[in-house]
Each structure stands twice: as C-alpha cells, then as structure tokens.
Amino acid sequence: MQKVNLTVGAFSVPFAEGFVEEDDQTVPNLKSLKQFAAILSDYGPFNLKFILPKEGQFGVLTETGYHDGVLDLLQEGKADMCLLPLSLDTQKAPGYFTSVVFEENFYIVSIRNLNKDHSAMISSLTSVTVIPLLLAILAILILELIAVKCFKIEALLSGILKSFGISFYQHLSPRSSWLCVIQMLILMFPVFIFNAAFSTQAIVGTADSKIDTLRDIIDQGKIPFFVEGMSMHDLFKSKVTKDYSDNYERAVAEGLET
Q1: How many CB atoms neighbour CB 34 within 10 A?
Q2: Which terminal residue of the chain, N or C, has fewer Cβ atoms less than 10 Å from its own Cβ?
C-alpha cells in the first residue's frame, strides 16, 4: 500500500527537548514520542513529517485568527494535524474537524430530590401507617377487658369508648396505668416491625430511577443542568438532535440553561 504524506504540527515544552533537528528534519527525541510516531506511521500508513512553529506552542487567538503556535500552522495549511488532540472548546479552531456528537460521552449525574415522592428517608417515615397503632390499641383493649373482674355490658361499652384515648390518657383502669403503657410499648414495636418487614420502601426507601441516556432525563421528568465546558453547552443550545433539544428546552423552562 502506498504511503500518504502527513505533516504533523508539534511543539516543544520548556526544559524538555521533545523534538530535535537532524539532517534538516524535525524528529522526535523522547522515547514516548518515537513510539507514538511509529504507531501513527503504521496506522496510516503515513510518511510522517513533523513541523515546529517559530514561536509559541498551541497559539493565541486574535481578531484575525491565530498567528503563532501549532494552530497557526494549521490555519496556514502548513500542518495537516496537531500532535495533541485539541479540546472541544477551542475557539475558531482551524483545520479539518468533525463535530463529536455522542450521547454516551456525557457525564450524567443524579442529585436526590428531597421531596415526599422521591426521598428515601421521608418515604420510610410516611410508610408507617395508623393501622398498626389501631391494632395495638385494640389488643390493649382486649387485655384490659380480660383484667376486668366482672364482664358487664357497661364495662364493655365504657372500654370501647375509652379505647380511642388510651394512648394518651391511660385511664381505662385506674389501677393499671403503668401496665397500659408497658402493654402499648410491647405491642407497638413488634407490630411496626412486622409491618415494615413487608414494606421494602421502609427498609431501602424509594429507589431513584436510573439515568443512562439523554432521553431518560426527559422520560423520567428530571431537570438537566450544565456543568461542562462551553462547547458541551453549545451542542444543546444548537439542538443538534431531538434529545439535545428536549433537554435544553427543559433546562430553559427551569431556569438552568447556563
């Protein structure tokens, strides 16, 4: 296969001679750069030619473009590519670039929304219902009725009417106030534990929905916000795909577009 000529723009770092001049050619001086050049040459296959800028490293952007560094070489067409990959937020990057748009490349984080619908702690607390408490009061009433010496209908009706306040007053039987308290504590805890044993919500809380793609954010009603670089934000603002557009519009609606 015939090799293709490829000019690579490079630069040297102070106190490290990454490239040296040999026979009027710029060649790598460090072992790692030599290995990289060999890999790149075999991958093409390419005939590599390294070129260094007269001054600068990456380059400084001015009103008329780049005038030094590797980006100046790309701008003037003296180099085909840069030795190091450029960041996506490089302003007015010269040369040939392809927009990178992959949803899988985004860092999607989740912040727990502390409200009554999503908080595991609050869900665990609200999972305790009034039914176990009523069952405990009913059990106490039965024990109190057993403790009554004479099972008269008046005592039964009185016990039923007073059972609703037994948790607070404990005056169904003046002789057993402390007994009522002990009975209620003994009965309430096992009932609550038994009730929680069949409620995974009380044990592990409400599990947050898993977010894998940008579409999941919209489908699950999440609120997106942006913490990456400007280029990342520009992809959403430009609405390059429907998912990007929907997420950006959701962020704008919530006031989190920046």
Answers
A1: 12
A2: N
CB under 8 Å to 30, separation ≥6 — which residues?
16, 17, 18
Q: Rounded to a whole number, what is the distance in angstroms from the first to the last CA of the chain?
A: 50
Query: CA nearest 70: which of 4, 5, 25, 7?
Result: 7
Q: Is 9 helix (H, G, I), strand (E, B) or coil?
A: strand
Domain boundaries, the chain: 4-97, 105-110+208-253, 121-203
For the ranges 25-29, 169-173, 221-225, the maximum mean pLDDT occurs at 25-29
**Top-confidence range, 98-107, 149-158, 180-189:** 180-189
Q: Tell me the pTM.
A: 0.36
| Residues 157-176 pLDDT 10s | 565 556 555 544 544 445 45
Q: How many residues are recorded in the chain?
A: 258
Give which of 48, 45, 135, 42 is closest to 83, Cα–Cα. Answer: 48
| Stretch 48-53: mean pLDDT | 87
Q: CB under 8 Å to 53, separation ≥6 — which residues?
A: 9, 11, 59, 68, 69, 70, 72, 73
- Pairing label, strands 4-9, 81-82: parallel
User: What letter represents residue 41's amino acid?
Assistant: S
Domain 4-97 falls in which CATH fold?
D-Maltodextrin-Binding Protein; domain 2 (3.40.190)
Q: Where are the alpha helices (DSSP H) in the chain?
A: 31-43, 69-75, 120-126, 131-147, 153-162, 177-197, 200-204, 214-219, 230-237, 242-253
Instruction: Find where tokens 């560094």 sit.
Output: 69
